[in-house]
Design brief:
With about 525 residues, the chain is an alpha/beta fold. It is about 65% helix and about 10% strand.
Length: about 525
């Protein structure tokens, strides 16, 4: 079946008029009419576009030996379709720049560079979103892992935004708008010798175009041997496995965002009004779901209409921008302090004394030394803590012949701590809530003892690494030997008990024999 007949049937089956198809191809209706009547033949880039519109292969469309009912649509594998789309963009780009004049090339390159610069400038608001996230996370987490995760997520979203937006604008504004042929007029009804000559030239052009297409097909077949096809399947498998690994962090982030959304709704009902942060969370939740949907489409070879999801993605970014702006205003009106929250909590005092020696180390963070010359051989540790919130206790470890003193605490009433935080947030105040466990820590001893304690700590932390490892290995051996000695001692105790029991039995039987003899 001829190309003209296939094109006409494909157009009608897809409920497209000649004008509608012409608009999609950016040509005149007369051009489509001539293609369907067999008077002219489309150029290569138009053929590729037709294949994309009707989802058919180039060979099925242009090979006259293939019947219409044998024409097969492209596979539903999104990876294959993505590769086809990329190849289409590359082919049409090569054709566009080859066909352009030098002046038009310079203008197009300048516009593309300008587009890239504009999209790179969008990194500024994304960096600001990272900054806002770090600011909020630092108020609740001491670890930097949430900050790294937040930064990674925002950078991935920016990369996806940059790639998809640049490709979409490039394809829509440059490739689809590029006109490679002038608008043609309707054919005259009467035929003149001049027109017959033009028809002969057109037929020759059609033959030349078909020969070019056949040559491209043959070259492609030669360039794709069987081993490369097998390699392509292997790459496809590993790519899917890689996509699965990429999907897992987004699923984990989605769960965290759902949790954050629930917390924000809870805070709103409690009277805490940070609507900007809520909008940012909702936007990132939608973006995460969009990305997970996109990744699942590639992993499970499912169908997906990319246009509405891309619109959702852009709308989510817009919501994120609005939310970030509102968050900026809300955070600007919030008092953020590293001080202890103002509360009416009662305090308690924990005091303990230790003997000073050359191996004593007091490794208590955020403590202060106070000289007390009356404590020549002693060191006194005094901890003031909020008794309503937590319990505090001191402990010591023996490590590498050093006695290391530190403290620990456990939260007594978590609900009270949460209520304090909520009350502060209502008043647009954020404090360092880690200071609600310990009010202050003071270490009392003489000046010489303070110097000795500081020197012990320096010596301990400046120990040579190899020596440290060697000592550690020896300590492990010592621990193992101690365990064996303990086991042997337990066995020995058991044997002694058994021996004593036998001796008692022996004496008992001797006494019985003696009694019998006496009687």
């Amino acid at each position: 079946m001829k190309f003209s007949e296939k094109l006409q049937k494909l157009r009608k089956e897809n409920n497209l008029s000649q004008e509608a198809l012409a608009d999609k191809l950016d040509v005149s209706r007369q051009s489509v009419s001539k293609w369907e009547s067999g008077q002219t033949y489309p150029e290569m880039d138009k053929l590729l576009t037709i294949c994309k519109i009707f989802n058919v292969t180039l060979d099925d469309l242009t090979n006259d030996e293939i019947l219409y009912n044998e024409v097969k649509t492209k596979g539903t594998n999104p990876l294959s379709n993505l590769i086809d789309e990329i190849m289409y963009i590359i082919d049409k780009t090569i054709y566009m720049f080859t066909d352009m004049s030098k002046k038009h090339k310079k203008e197009t390159i300048f516009k593309i560079i300008l587009l890239i610069i504009i999209l790179l400038l969008f990194k500024i608001p994304f960096n600001y979103i990272i900054y806002l996230g770090d600011l909020g996370l630092n108020c609740f987490f001491k670890s930097y892992f949430p900050n790294y995760l937040w930064s990674f997520l925002i950078n991935v979203i920016y990369i996806i935004f940059f790639v998809f937006t640049s490709i979409y604008i490039y394809k829509t504004y440059f490739l689809d708008k590029y006109k490679d042929e002038p608008k043609e007029e309707e054919p005259f009804e009467e035929t003149t010798p001049v027109e017959e000559k033009e028809e002969n030239i057109k037929e020759e052009n059609i033959k030349e175009e078909k020969q070019k297409i056949r040559k491209i097909k043959i070259d492609n077949e030669r360039k794709t041997p069987v081993i490369l096809k097998g390699l392509g399947k292997l790459v496809n498998f590993f790519l899917k496995a890689f996509l699965v690994l990429i999907t897992l962090p987004f699923i984990f982030t989605c769960v965290l965002l759902f949790l954050a959304f629930t917390v924000m709704i809870f805070l709103i009902f409690k009277g805490v009004t940070y609507f900007g942060i809520l909008l940012v969370i909702i936007s990132f939740l939608i973006i995460n779901i969009t990305l997970i949907k996109l990744l699942f489409t590639f992993i499970f070879n499912s169908r997906m209409s990319f246009k509405p999801w891309f619109i959702i993605f852009l709308v989510s970014l817009a919501i994120c921008g609005v939310g970030s702006g509102i968050s900026l205003i809300e955070i600007a009106n919030t008092k953020i302090s590293e001080e202890t929250p103002k509360t009416n909590l009662t305090t308690n005092k924990l005091t303990e004394e230790y003997d000073i020696n050359d191996n004593l180390i007091i490794d208590i963070y955020n403590s202060k030394y106070v000289e007390d010359e009356s404590l020549k051989d002693k060191v006194k540790i005094e901890i003031n803590y909020y008794n309503d919130i937590s319990n505090v206790y001191l402990y010591n470890n023996i490590y590498k012949n050093y006695k290391i003193i530190n403290y620990d605490f456990n939260i007594k009433d978590i609900n009270l701590l949460i209520n304090i935080i909520i009350d502060n947030l209502k008043n647009k105040e954020i404090y360092d809530y880690s200071k609600l466990q310990i009010k202050d820590i003071t270490i009392y001893t003489s000046k010489s003892n303070i110097e000795k304690l500081n020197k012990n700590k320096e010596d301990f932390y400046s120990m040579d690494t190899e020596l440290y490892d060697e000592i550690n290995n020896f300590e492990n051996v010592i621990e193992s030997l101690n365990e064996k000695i303990y086991e042997l001692e337990e066995e020995n105790d058991t044997l002694i008990e058994e021996k004593q029991e036998l001796e008692n039995n022996l004496e008992e039987y001797k006494d019985k024999i003696k009694d019998l003899l006496e009687n």
